[in-house]
Amino acid sequence: MSTKPPTSVLDHALRIPGVTKLTGKRVILASNSPRRKDILRTFGLAPEIIPSTFGEDLNPYEFEDIHEYPVATATHKAVEVYERLVAEDPDNGPDLVIGADTVVLTHAQPLSSEIAYSELPGTRQELLEKPDSKVDNLRMLLDLNGAVCEVVTGVSVVFPILTSPGYAIRSLDERTLVYFSDNPTHVLEAYADSGEGIDRAGGFALQGLGGLLVRKIEGDYNNVVGFPAASFFRFLDMLVEDDDDFLEV
Asked: Which residues are catalytic?
């Protein structure tokens, strides 16, 4: 007989409503990102790690607002894992699946984290995915150098409800501005050659050697690393307060 795993809430977690609600629940992170896992553990949440098999093949430019793209990808990741686990073992389905996706956008407006995008002058933002080579990484760094980019993480949670389709989806997005120094070309070449940026959206790791390239950020540091913890835990508190179905099934 399937049994519930040990609680995902660690002893050092703050006993705020959203965290307390997760006590004794089966919580899943639909990502194999060590950075997301570490950020959540820092704040007292230790979900099971079950990466999504979603192909991440959405076309970002089909979205009217490109900021909806990481939220949509995060949603597909979370739903895929939720449906798979329920199909595999209906008696031990997850109580909460967390999906996340982080993207980097060029040409950020300096105040875009505070003003609605509908109120800003139209600027075409380019999406920077993970570079596929050191040459591609250097191209991205040259584009970002001396400029401001926007790191956007979409987070979606999926949890069971009694009505069709059997689960609910709630989402948020967090935006952080990253201001790059006007770095000499040899510094960018050295960073690209290090290989650190190959597996990172935008081609840099703020928490690593890439921090040498950046002069300041505006917003949540953890969001740039890969998961907006502060917004996420406030989001859980809000769901406890406002959503009668949240973790009640």
From this structure: 101
